[in-house]
Specification:
The chain has two helices and no strands. The protein has two domains: 41 residues; 98 residues, Pectate Lyase C-like. It is an all-alpha fold and 139 residues long. 24% of the residues are buried.
Length: 139
């Protein structure tokens, strides 16, 4: 029994030490962050630059030059990509559900799938690689 008591005492003193250490640092962490020019930590779901896994849900990218951009696993749900240039863009795993790609240039893009096109909204002006079929629901 005394062995368990000692073990318990060690764990509780360690927890107290961690709580004390955390409390002592909380006042200095904020000013130190501001002095270094760092703002508050960013949410891991939102990223500034398009890239691997970028959260571009509802993004307004009409007419954007995205040639050779890495949009791997990007969330492009309901994004406005009208007339965007996506030639040579890496689209592996990109989510195009309800993305507006009317008039966009998708020729020569990498890893485009028919399922991605089927999930998007396009039109007759959308430029596709010759191996793909224009979905019937496009205007």
């Amino acid at each position: 029994m005394s062995g368990r008591g000692n073990s318990s005492d060690r764990h509780s003193s360690g927890a107290g030490a961690r709580a004390t250490a955390g409390a002592g640092n909380s006042g200095s962490a904020g000013p130190r962050r501001q002095r270094q020019g760092q703002g508050p930590p960013r949410s891991p779901q939102r990223r500034r630059d398009p890239g691997r896994g970028a959260d571009l849900v509802g993004a307004k990218l009409r007419g954007a030059d995205l040639r050779a951009a890495s949009l791997r696993s990007a969330l492009l749900i309901a994004a406005d990509l009208r007339e965007a240039d996506l030639r040579a863009a890496d689209l592996i795993g990109a989510d195009f559900r309800d993305a507006d790609i009317r008039g966009a240039d998708l020729r020569d893009c990498l890893f485009l799938t028919q399922a991605q096109l089927n999930a998007a909204r396009g039109d007759a002006a959308t430029k596709l690689p010759p191996t793909f079929t224009r979905p019937a629901h496009w205007s």
